[in-house]
Amino acid sequence: MIIKPRTRGFICLTSHPEGTLQNIKNQIDYVKSKGKIKNGPKKVLVIGASTGFGIASRITAAFGSDAATIGVFFEKPAAEGKPGTAGWYNSAAFEKEAHASGLYAKSINGDAFSDEIKKQTIDLIKKDLGQIDLVVYSLASPRRTHPKTGVNYASVLKPIGQPFTNKTVDFHTGVVSDITINPVDNDEDIQNTIAVMGGEDWKFWMEDLKEAGVLAEGVKTVAYSYIGPELTYPIYRNGTIGKAKDDLEATVTTINKLLKDLNGISYVSVNKALVTQSSSAIPVVPLYISLLYKVMKQKGIHEGCIEQMQRLFAESLYSGEKISLDEKGRIRIDDLEMREDVQKEVAALWEQATTENLEAISDIEGYRNDFFNLFGFNFEEIDYDKDTNELVNVDSIQ
Ligand code: NAI
């Protein structure tokens, strides 16, 4: 079928299998160009492995460190006349490239929050890998069914305490407008968001993996967080999602205790703001990202997910040196985003940004391009007027 982008708000309803393959190949090429990571991980589980930071982590482990990888994700396969989701095609492309390079790669498609998927994953590790030495936790989800109680939780993206008014952009049209987001009016929304995006599920995974004996001596685990600038604090770090991130970050202490007798360790890495399916859903953030991209590209310090993950693995997690942490014990690969000169320039542009000057003062074009790239569109190597086979399978999923 011929597949063109079909968008609804911040969602793209279609994905292109050849374009996503191109996207994965570009990321693999980048990791290869950086050379092998000395003493990198060898047997890796990535939870949330199909898009954004998760697929970039998987690519870095596989192609930067020759690691065997198991990826867990929740994606829709293709059906006749109906393209699969981008994460489905990404995973198909990843496995194809990994297998062609002689690397072990298998995937599990299902709800990572459930006990059943945890069990399936553990069985697969036992059967094929024995033990794993790195667990990457990169889930981003709007809802979670609790595996023990069956309660369904939905997360909300809201400020706490007072309404938040600021600029936002519709990145398709470039219209900059003011938006007011009302605060949560009950504690339940905060607790629900923590239940979805906080640390409990990460802890459940680590407990189950440990109990099954599939964690190797010296195992590492890492989950991802975000802080960002003051101007997004009300909607992000001081909002409902920020409470969930506080909870995720606090889980490090619990997991460290759990892993102590294995000499294992857990980290949270604070990553840079980037265009992913999750971040495009947060009001205000797309305008910030398009201004940030402009400033960071001008300074020659822009990074995407793959550059961030390659740096995290090579220069932090597996650098062989003492890992540098902030005062709260977090890895900070958002260091370039948070540099004083960068933030000062972004803040000045923020004051000026209007619909009229947006194309000139921001990198809204780069934002859009990254957004369409997520779904395999806007790659010059691909002829989008040509018929393509939408029925692409992930090798290991029958
Ligand atoms: P994403 O939306 O690109 O990826 C989410 C992944 O989770 C996908 O692989 C998806 O299949 C998987 N997933 C969602 N629900 C699932 C379920 N029930 N079962 C199994 N898999 C499921 O998100 P992104 O942006 O890569 O986020 C990953 C982590 O990085 C999150 O913790 C996020 O907060 C964090 N982060 C994101 C930043 C950004 O700017 N995008 C910045 C800093 C941190």
Which descriptors apply to this entry?
398 residues; alpha/beta; Rossmann fold; 7-stranded parallel sheet; binds 1,4-dihydronicotinamide adenine dinucleotide; Eno_Rdtase_FAD-bd_dom
Description:
Belongs to the TER reductase family. The active site is at 236 (proton donor). The protein has 398 residues and is α/β, with parallel strands linked by helices. The chain has a domain at 7-147 and 187-274 and 304-334: NAD(P)-binding Rossmann-like Domain (Rossmann fold), CATH 3.40.50.720. 40% of the residues lie in helices and 16% in strands. The protein has twelve helices and 13 strands. It has helices spanning 17-33, 52-65, 86-100, 115-129, 187-197, 200-211, 240-259, 285-298, 305-317, 340-352, 358-361, 364-374; strands spanning 7-8, 11-12, 43-47, 68-73, 105-109, 132-137, 143-145, 152-154, 164-170, 175-181, 215-225, 265-270, 331-332. It has a seven-stranded parallel β-sheet with strand order 5-4-3-6-11-12-13, with helices on both faces. A hairpin with a 4-residue loop joins strand 9 and strand 10. Helix 6 runs parallel beside helix 7 (240-259) and helix 8 (285-298) packs across helix 12. The longest helix is centred in the middle third of the chain and has 20 residues, at 240-259. The protein is globular and about 60 Å long. The relative contact order is 0.17. Residues 48-54, 72-75, 87, 111-113, 138-141, 224-226, 271, 273-274, 276-279 line the site of 1,4-dihydronicotinamide adenine dinucleotide (NAI). 1,4-dihydronicotinamide adenine dinucleotide binds at residues 48-54, 72-75, 87, 111-113, 138-141, 224-226, 271, 273-274, 276-279.
